[in-house]
Specification:
- It contains 14 helices and ten strands.
- The chain is of the alpha/beta class.
- It has a five-stranded parallel sheet with strand order 2-1-3-4-5, with helices on both faces. The chain has a five-stranded parallel sheet with strand order 7-6-8-9-10, sandwiched between helices.
- The structure holds 6-O-phosphono-beta-D-glucopyranose.
- The site of 6-O-phosphono-beta-D-glucopyranose has 16 residues, from helix 4.
- One of its GO terms (molecular function) is glutamine-fructose-6-phosphate transaminase (isomerizing) activity.
- This is Glutamine--fructose-6-phosphate aminotransferase [isomerizing].
- It catalyses: D-fructose 6-phosphate + L-glutamine = D-glucosamine 6-phosphate + L-glutamate.
- It is found in: Cytoplasm.
């Protein structure tokens, strides 16, 4: 059943290029136009949406955080992403022009289900992004966009996350397309780039041996920090979550801009810090700022593990370990940047003697609030 892999998790990490391809399949035509047939909310209703609210838990919440950057950029509709368990109980302001997107691999997470029920009671339209056909969350939503990751068995989510990202990008691009924002040309270009992205994920998977060796070498540490900015921030949070779930280590993700407002006090000699670096200067103004952050933490003794695009030479002098990822458009970078963090957590957990498919205290789908 594990197809020759030692764990479901490793199998599912390896299946990601196919999962991404399958989720895109049939949704982009030869002209580069998006078709989302399962969306049963009319185009008119979607054109009238004036606010998007994304609700989800765990790894799906991180996909939702990334979606916020894409939706606001390509559609110019205000978008907020909130933990489903918080959203429900703070009396959120919603109406018929609010589009709520509920992201859930299992489609059974009670916190997310309660959030969507509450949203529908307020008259909001709910679009589910889900991996499990016919599960409760899509059944109770106005529309569903299924991710085609195939069954995910390992408790810690990997391939479902990548396909949730793809689905979120599709929704963002589709909304941008039907509403005709000034980003029309960019949207067409990104649709093409998204179609080619599974090949890039494949390339990342082929270069993971040094990441595994690094993970094994860090198995004796207690703490690992993760830094990122813009869409790299949720990627940092996801890297930290994976390490908590699988390796039972103290792992924290921070927005790199916040470093100086507190977390830098944690830096001490030999502390591993994983930094997700945005596209080099010219394409992201944040690049230079992150390079300064890497210098700052290294000067204070951190062991820097830098995830940066191929060709990004500015980071080289400050990286104790350098993990290369292919160059992608800024907003799509999480699709390639997350993969090394999954491999890292899985290998580190294994080196610590943990069972990666069934981490202690966790369940694949949590059907209680
Ligand atoms: C958790 C799982 O408790 O539920 C996580 O252990 C998952 O891996 C989270 O991200 C949300 O699950 P779902 O099915 O709603 O995406």
């Amino acid at each position: 059943e594990k197809g020759g892999y030692p764990s479901f998790m490793l199998k599912e990490i390896a299946e990601q290029p196919k999962a991404v391809t399958d989720t895109l399949l049939g949704r982009i035509d030869s002209e580069g136009t998006l078709h989302l047939d399962e969306v049963r909310i009319t185009r008119t209703e979607l054109r009238e949406v004036d606010k998007v609210v994304i609700v989800a838990c765990g790894t799906a919440f991180h996909a939702g955080m990334i979606a916020k950057y894409a939706i606001e950029h390509w559609t110019r509709i205000p978008c907020e992403t909130e933990l489903a368990s918080e959203f429900r109980y703070r009396d959120p302001i919603l109406d018929q022009r609010t589009l709520v997107i509920a992201i859930s691999q299992s489609g059974e997470t009670m916190d997310t289900l309660m959030a969507l029920r509450h949203a529908r009671e307020q008259g909001a339209k709910v679009l589910a992004i889900c991996n499990t056909n016919g599960s409760t969350i899509p059944r109770e939503s106005d529309a569903v966009l299924y991710t085609h990751a195939g069954p995910e068995v390992a408790v810690a989510s990997t391939k479902a996350f990548l396909t949730q990202l793809v689905a979120c990008y599709l929704v963002a691009l589709y909304l941008g397309q039907i509403r005709g924002t000034k980003w029309g040309d960019e949207i067409r270009t990104v649709i093409r780039q998204l179609s080619a992205i599974s090949g890039e994920v494949e390339r990342v998977l082929e270069t993971m041996e040094p990441v595994r060796a690094l993970a094994r070498s860090l198995a004796g540490h207690d703490t690992v920090l993760f830094l990122g900015r813009h869409v790299g921030y949720p990627v940092a949070l996801e890297g930290a979550l994976k390490l908590k779930e699988l390796a039972y280590m103290h792992a924290e993700g921070f927005a790199a801009g916040e470093l100086k407002h507190g977390p830098i006090a944690l830096i001490e000699d030999g502390l591993p810090v994983v930094v997700v670096v945005p596209s080099p200067a010219g394409r992201s103004v944040l690049h230079g700022k992150i390079v300064s952050n890497i210098q700052e933490i290294r000067a204070r003794g951190a062991l820097t593990v830098v995830i940066a695009e191929e060709g990004d030479e500015a980071v080289v002098p400050y990286a104790d370990h350098l993990i290369r990822i292919p160059a992608t458009p800024t907003l799509l970078q999480p699709l390639v940047a997350t993969v090394p963090l999954q491999v890292f957590a899985c290998e580190l957990a294994t080196a610590r003697g943990n069972e990666v498919d069934q981490p202690r205290n966790l369940a694949k789908s949590v059907t209680v609030e």
